Amino acid sequence: MGFFGFFECIPDYQVAELLLNRAREGLKEKGMQSMRGPVNPSMNEECGLLLEGFDSSPTIMMPYTPEYYLEFMERFGLKKSKDLLAYFYSSKEPQARVFKLLEKVKNKNITIRNIDLKKLKSEIIIMKRIFNSAWEKNWGFVPMTDKEAESLARTMKPLGNAELIQFAEMKGEPVGFSLSMPDYNQVLKHLNGKFGPIELLKFLYYRRKINMFRLMVLGVEKEYRNLGIELLLYFKIIENAKKLGMCFESSWTLEDNTPINKGAVAMGGTLYKKYRFYEKQIQ
Q1: What angle do CA 88, 199, 66 make, to 5 degrees?
Q2: Helix (H) or strand (E) holding 199
Q3: pLDDT value for 215
Q4: Do 53 and 111 fall into the same domain?
C-alpha cells in the first residue's frame, strides 16, 4: 500500500489527472500494489478530503478541501476507502444513562490528572507508549515514531494547555490519555500566511479569543479497556470545556467504529463533518 497527499489543484480535471498519475507512477516504481489518500504526510497528521461540512471552518490539523476534489478523485477511478467522522460539542448534556455509568466507575481505583508541562519530555514518552498500544489494531494505524513524538512536544510546549491534556492512572500507573489542542486556526486565519511584527500582535490578540478546542486523541491501553476509563476522560474534557468557556470538536473517528461513535453521541456530541479516504489498485 502506497500513499499520496498534499493534493492541491485548480478546478481543472486535466491538472488533477496529471498529478494523480504521477503519484500512481511513483508508487508503482516503488513496488506498491495500491494507492490510498490523501494523507498529509501520515495517518497521524491531516487525513482525507472534506465530504460534508463545507459551511464551517476547519479546526487545527483538520483539512478543508474544495468539493470538486471529490469528483476529481472518482473520475480518476479512486473509490471510497473509509470515511472519517467529526463530532461537535457545545452545551448539550450527555444522555441520562451516561451519568448512571459514571457513578459506577467512580468507585473504581482510577484517577485523572492533567499533564505536567514541566516534565513534558517524560510525559510524551508515556503518551507514545499508550498510543502505540491502544491504536495498534485500528484500521490504517501507523505507530508514532520518536521523531513524531519530539515534534508533538515542540508543538505542545508553546501552544498546549495543561487543562486540555489528561492522563488516566490506575494505582499511579498511566494507562490512558486524552490530548486536546486549542483551535489555533481561529488565530492563523487572521495572519494571511505572514508572521511579521504586526502579525505577532494579531497572534497575541486573537489567541485570547479562541473559544474552541479539538479533542485529537483519546485512548486506553487494551488490557485496561471496559473499565470506564474512557468515560472518566470524556467527562473531564467536558468539565474543562465548561470551565474554560469553550466548545470542542472530537475528530476524527472511523465510520465503522460503532462503540466510539455511539459513545460520542451519548456524551452530547453531534455529527457535523465527514472526511473521505480514496483508494485504487495500481495497474
Answers
A1: 45
A2: helix 197-207
A3: 97
A4: no
Which structural domain range is residue 58 located in? 2-85
Reported as a single tens digit per residue, the pLDDT across 58-89 is 999 999 999 999 999 999 999 999 999 999 99
The span from the CA of 169 to the CA of 16, in Å, is 48
CA 67 to chain centroid = 21
Backbone conformation region of residue 10, classed left if phi is above 0, alpha if psi is from -120 to 50, else beta: beta
Measure the CA–CA gap between 9 and 176, rounded to whole angstroms.
Answer: 40
67 and 11 within one domain = yes
* E strand residue ranges, 67-185: 79-89, 110-114, 165-170, 173-182
Does any domain span residue 255?
A: yes
How far is the C-alpha of 230 from the C-alpha of 237, rounded, in Å?
Answer: 11
Q: Which residues pair with 212 in a beta bridge?
A: 247
Q: pLDDT digit string (tens) for 184-214?
A: 999 999 999 999 999 999 999 999 999 999 9
Burial of 34 (0-12, 13-18, 19+ CB in 10 A): middle
DSSP secondary structure string for all residues of 44-62: TSEESEEEE-TTSPPPTT-
CATH number of the domain that residue 240 is part of? 3.40.630.30
Residue 220 maps to a domain: yes
Residue among 211, 180, 212, 183 nearest 114 (CA): 180
Please state whether the predicted TM-score (pTM) of the whole model is above 0.85: yes
